[in-house]
């Protein structure tokens, strides 16, 4: 069935460099879903535009799902029918070829052609008839520097390309892995990507340096008629064409660019030759790429070409060249046919049908000959009619063919018997190996379970040791804290004892001062008693002579005032001669004593004057009574004796009046003298206070300064003691911290050593797993007959097979992860630190 190559174009969004170079300017216009116009500096018409018509044009906003549904989905469906199919992406470097083919496998919106193709393929297998048995195998190769490398087995770095009549063009000794689910395919793709050659250029940070070919072979066997169909799908991610001026390639990258451009030029030459009817020779052998894709370009395949383009004016020349390449490829015609092989059973059925037909024809011939004979006719022996002769010749040829077919069938049967014997032997060997593998898996599962139990016990022991270590460290820390607190209490006790001793001394001093005050009080009491006795004596003196008393008192007052003034002057001089600290104490004592004496003297004088006043009043009352009595006597005498006596009593009365007047005047004089004495006392007191006020202020200031200095001294002493204690405690804490740091450093070194050891073990495990996988892949390549058939509609079975095939890798990854967790746990337990403060 002849069909043209389907060509679609996909334009990607602008990247940062294109926006920077052109300011975001676009050079393409999408007039329809099949046409694009390119406008730029090298236009081919007057309007400055070039038109390109393709099977489909996808703008930058087109989704990956739309691209897949139009381009690859029909090819995959045809492959499932038994046709060969090819989907490959072409374009300049950085144009989005790899993204279109692969995309992001974990994102449903951004998945590329390959992940969607895998899902479609296994979905079709699940929905197929249960009588159809599928076998799917994959291989991944790259063409790097014109060398075919097996990405599933990197040791095969220069595979050869072969051709025969039955298989066509194929890659010899390539690793073909049988797959049963999507995850198997993705695992193979991950392995291939790890081994693929990539490099960074100015146009693409992950530029592919080789052509990637992902080959999927799907074999279908109908269990009813035993027919067999084989479809092969090529998914090709071509390396991008490069301009060295833009990519900045140099060194080995430049050599790779040269080989990439050379192989792409060979591909262009093949397409040009296929589209030019005058060319008789197609140069497939000019490149490994074109040699492998011979059937895809003008041969037995259905092909879809996706050209990836940039919409930026910066890449105008490359975009136009890519679209022209697609336009030329659109003219290629392929002749695809179903790759169906007839099995021995099917050939036997056809042979039986042919033999039955021949038997019927022979019976018909015999019947015709008998009929002719019965009718009297004669059948010539030498010559036969043309029809009969033709039938006879056909019969003879059929007999010969049947004999040849029988011989071929016998040979084929013998060969089939040998093959069946070999298959039986291989199946027996496979069964033994499967049993052995199952036994190894069971032993491995037991060992894994035992290892898991040991790891759990080890983890518990590690946690217990860590807890015990933490508890021990905490106990040591608490004990040290208690020791520090005990030392602080001891220091506080010593300070308290010192302060108590000081308080006791102060108390003793206060007791001494109290004793002195008691003695002073006793002295004052004695002096008071003496003053009372002196007052009694004063009363007797007042009765004898008032004038003498007044004179004496006034003299005493004058002498007292003079002596007080002299004493004040003397004390002031003495205070000025003393230092401030001694002057304070002396001034306080003198002031207290002087004030006490002044008060006592003043009280004594006032008391004596009051008593004298009372005494004088009493004397006046007595004299008034005597005067009244005398007047009574005079009146009585006047009545009895007459005028002789009246003169004598008048003289006596006059005399008494004079004495009374004299005493009254003397009393007034005494009161005046008392007032003067009070004024003098007040003046003396004011004078003393005026003299003492600066001294008191100075003494008070000195007293306050002394108190402040004393308080500051006590505070400094207390602070000094506290600082000494705190300094000692901090020194001990610092020593403990240094010891703790040293221990932690040792623990850290030990943990690092153990961690490095675990990392080395993980690396060894990883290398062991990789070597096991490589050896398994090599063994798989050596025994191609270890197929994994899939029945249509067998989704559950396929899922279980897929899970079983991934057990080994999961167990290896779990072991590596567990090793990392053990290392991390060990490091954390060794680094765990209790607070010291």
From TrEMBL:
Compartments reported by the entry: Cytoplasm, Cytoskeleton
Domain Kinesin motor: residue ranges: 4-332
PROSITE patterns tied to this protein: KINESIN_MOTOR_1 (PS00411), KINESIN_MOTOR_2 (PS50067)
One Gene Ontology term from the biological process aspect of the record: cytoskeleton organization
Pfam families xref list: Kinesin (PF00225)
Binding site for ATP: 91-98
A single cellular component GO annotation: microtubule
Residue ranges of the region described as Disordered: 776-798
Family, as annotated: Belongs to the TRAFAC class myosin-kinesin ATPase superfamily. Kinesin family. KIN-5/BimC subfamily.
Name of the protein in its database record: Kinesin-like protein
């Amino acid at each position: 069935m002849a069909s043209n190559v389907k060509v679609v174009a996909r334009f990607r969004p602008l990247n940062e460099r294109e926006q920077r170079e052109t300011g975001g300017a676009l050079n393409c216009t999408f007039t329809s879903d099949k046409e694009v116009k390119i406008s730029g500096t090298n236009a081919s018409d007057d309007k400055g535009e070039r038109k390109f018509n393709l099977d489909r044009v996808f703008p930058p906003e087109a989704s990956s799902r739309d691209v897949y549904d139009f381009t690859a989905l029909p090819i995959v469906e045809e492959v499932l029918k038994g046709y060969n199919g090819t989907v490959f992406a072409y374009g300049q470097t950085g144009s989005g070829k790899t993204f279109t083919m692969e995309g992001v496998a974990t994102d449903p919106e951004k998945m590329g052609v390959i992940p969607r193709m895998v899902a479609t393929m296994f979905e079709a297998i699940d929905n197929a008839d249960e009588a159809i048995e599928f076998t799917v195998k994959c291989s991944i190769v790259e063409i790097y520097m014109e060398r075919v490398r097996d990405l599933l087995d990197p040791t095969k770095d220069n595979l050869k390309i072969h051709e025969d009549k039955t298989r066509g063009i194929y890659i010899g000794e390539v690793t073909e892995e049988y797959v049963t689910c999507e995850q198997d395919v993705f695992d193979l793709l991950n392995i291939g990507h790890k081994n693929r050659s990539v490099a960074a250029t100015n146009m693409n940070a992950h530029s592919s340096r080789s052509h990637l070919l992902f080959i999927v072979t799907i074999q279908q066997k109908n269990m009813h008629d035993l027919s067999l169909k084989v479809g092969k799908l090529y998914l090709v991610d071509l390396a991008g064409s490069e301009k060295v001026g833009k990519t900045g390639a140099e060194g080995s990258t430049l050599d790779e660019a040269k080989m990439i451009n050379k192989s792409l030029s060979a591909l262009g030459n093949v397409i040009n030759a296929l589209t030019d009817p005058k060319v008789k020779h197609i140069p497939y052998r000019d490149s490994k790429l074109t040699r492998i894709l011979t059937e895809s370009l003008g041969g037995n395949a259905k092909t879809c070409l996706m050209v990836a383009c940039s919409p930026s004016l910066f890449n105008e020349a490359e975009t136009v060249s890519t679209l022209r390449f697609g336009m030329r490829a659109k003219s290629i015609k392929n002749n695809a046919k179903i790759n169906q092989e007839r099995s021995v059973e099917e050939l036997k059925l056809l042979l039986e049908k042919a033999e039955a037909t021949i038997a019927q024809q022979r019976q018909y011939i015999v019947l015709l000959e008998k009929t002719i004979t019965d009718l009297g006719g004669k059948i010539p022996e030498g010559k036969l009619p043309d029809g009969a002769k033709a039938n006879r010749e056909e019969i003879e040829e059929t007999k010969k063919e049947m004999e040849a077919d029988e011989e071929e069938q016998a040979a084929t049967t013998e060969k089939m018997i040998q093959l069946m014997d070999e298959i039986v032997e291989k199946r027996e060997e496979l069964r033994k190996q499967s049993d052995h593998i199952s036994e190894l898996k069971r032993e491995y599962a037991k060992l894994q379970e035992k290892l898991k139990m040991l790891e759990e016990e080890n983890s518990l022991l590690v946690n217990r040791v860590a807890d015990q270590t933490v508890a021990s460290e905490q106990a040591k820390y608490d004990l040290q804290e208690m020791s520090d607190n005990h030392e602080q209490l001891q220091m506080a006790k010593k300070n308290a004892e010192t302060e108590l001793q000081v308080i006791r001394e102060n108390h003793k001093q206060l007791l001494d001062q109290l004793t002195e005050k008691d003695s002073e009080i006793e002295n004052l009491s004695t002096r008071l008693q003496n003053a009372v006795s002196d007052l009694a004596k004063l009363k007797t003196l007042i009765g004898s002579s008032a004038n003498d008393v007044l004179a004496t008192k006034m003299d005493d007052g004058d002498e007292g005032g003079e002596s007080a003034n002299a004493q004040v002057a003397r004390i002031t001089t003495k205070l000025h001669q003393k230092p401030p600290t001694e002057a304070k104490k002396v001034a306080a004592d003198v002031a207290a004593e002087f004030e006490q004496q002044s008060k006592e003297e003043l009280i004594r004088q006032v008391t004596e004057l009051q008593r004298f006043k009372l005494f004088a009043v009493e004397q006046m009352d007595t004299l008034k009574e005597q005067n009244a009595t005398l007047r009574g006597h005079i009146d009585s005498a006047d009545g009895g004796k007459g005028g002789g006596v009246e003169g004598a009593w008048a003289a006596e009365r006059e005399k008494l009046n004079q004495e009374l007047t004299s005493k009254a005047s003397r009393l007034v004089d005494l009161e005046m003298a008392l007032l003067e004495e009070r004024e003098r006392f007040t003046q003396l007191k004011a004078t003393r206070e005026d003299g003492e006020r600066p001294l008191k202020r100075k003494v008070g200031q000195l007293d306050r300064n002394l108190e402040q200095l004393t308080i500051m001294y006590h505070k400094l002493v207390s602070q000094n003691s506290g600082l000494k204690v705190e300094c000692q405690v901090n020194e001990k804490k610092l020593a403990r911290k240094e010891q703790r740091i040293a221990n932690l450093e040792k623990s850290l070194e030990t943990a690092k050593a153990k961690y490095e050891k675990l990392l080395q073990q993980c690396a060894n495990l990883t290398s062991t797993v990789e070597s096991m996988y490589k050896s398994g892949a090599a063994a798989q390549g050596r025994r191609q007959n270890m197929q994994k058939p899939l029945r249509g509609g067998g989704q559950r079975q396929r899922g279980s097979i897929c899970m079983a095939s991934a057990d080994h890798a999961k167990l290896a990854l779990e072991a590596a992860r567990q090793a990392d967790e053990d290392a991390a746990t060990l490091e954390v337990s060794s680094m765990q630190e209790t607070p010291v403060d």
